[in-house]
Amino acid sequence: MSAAAAPAVLTLGAADLPALRALLHRFGLTLAVLDDGAAIPGSYWGDSEAGLSRDTLFARPDTPVHSVLHEGSHFICMSPRRRAGLERDAGGDDAEEAAVCYLQVLLAGELPGVGRERLMRDMDLWGYSFRLGSSAAWFEADASDARGWLERHGVVDAAGRLTFRARASSDQPLGAGAPREA
User: Fold this and answer.
1) What is the pLDDT of residues 86-97, one digit of tens each?
2) Is the pTM higher than 0.90?
3) How far is the CA of 25 from the CAs of 30, 42, 47, 56, 165, in angstroms?
4) CA-closest candidate to residue 57, choices 39, 46, 69, 45
5) What is the Cα 127 distance to its own chain's centre?
6) Backbone conformation region of residue 2, classed left if phi is above 0, alpha if psi is from -120 to 50, else beta
């Protein structure tokens, strides 16, 4: 969505930048804030959307906080092998994408002035689409698969609390056995 047509969502310029930087740093991710109007390296969608390159997340003051948290969540959820070669396209499957959306809501709860409710409202305003009609309905009633994915990969604990660890396993969840020989 272009910034000109975007509804009023919380942007990086209005957020607590030190708190956001500190949160992302806990997962090994550096936030690089660019000048207004600068091209954003590693941005998949362009315009004001955040971008990823290896362990750096790029954004501008007009980048939506939900975009920063979404791209940061991609970094956290991908395997170390994918993280090492990361350039613009986070990849992953549908299950991982759902986990990314769930995780960005959890991360928002760690940020002063953001919080889960605000982030989910912004996700809805921006056009995220969920079966139950809103991100809040999805998060509360239809996201057990996403939470389970995060737990299997060690990103949240059994109670659904952040572990503040990025996915450490290769492409298998924690506790999965070795692949079988065909």
Assistant:
1) 787 677 778 999
2) no
3) 6, 18, 25, 10, 11
4) 69
5) 16
6) beta
